Amino acid sequence: MSYKSDFILFMVRSGVLTFGDFTTKSGRKTPYFINTGNYRTGSQAARLGEYYAACIQENISGDIDALFGPAYKGIPLSVACAIALADKHERDVNYCFNRKEAKDHGEGGVMVGYKLKDGDRVVIIEDVITAGTAMRECLPILQSAANVEIAGLIVSADRMERGSGELSAIQEIKRDYGIETYPIVTVREIIETLHNVPVDGTVLVDNAMRKRMEAYLEEYGI
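and the corresponding structure tokens:
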């Protein structure tokens, strides 16, 4: 089983990927939902870091000077990924993250962890991407710290749907900033992996659910 298929089953068993009737922040009625806030154990964090590390190994070549985890959800993700890169792939990569509010005592500033330098190659570690708001907020933070190169953005899943216009958030980030986004899995891979395949005795994506998901993508997909 590929790490992608294994990750999909991991999301299901962790209660992160669920199916039914949901409403997104944008008001869209969706038949599936991804809630990364449901990860809550040490073993889940360890495995999650391994999936992110595998995605980096597959997609980003060359040296990486640092992983950056935007506050707040990106913080544990960047740490878990750095641990997995060192433990599983013998790549000892620095990590850093930002504070939501600048610290006005001690060392001060908004950055914690590795001190970025001009010319560093940085990979941004995020949970999911919807409107791309977090990216637009964290890029000025990185640029104010040093003149860094963004080697890529790693996210858990790509819902493959439009934002407010005709492009997805991932496509908008590529257009606006020239940054490639690498999802561990896409919604298409989720459909193909789970369609009529029981997970612990239950088929979550039967023919009816697949039809609903395909209809959603037909209406909102890119």
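(Above: one complete record from the training split.) The chain is about 40% helix and 25% strand.
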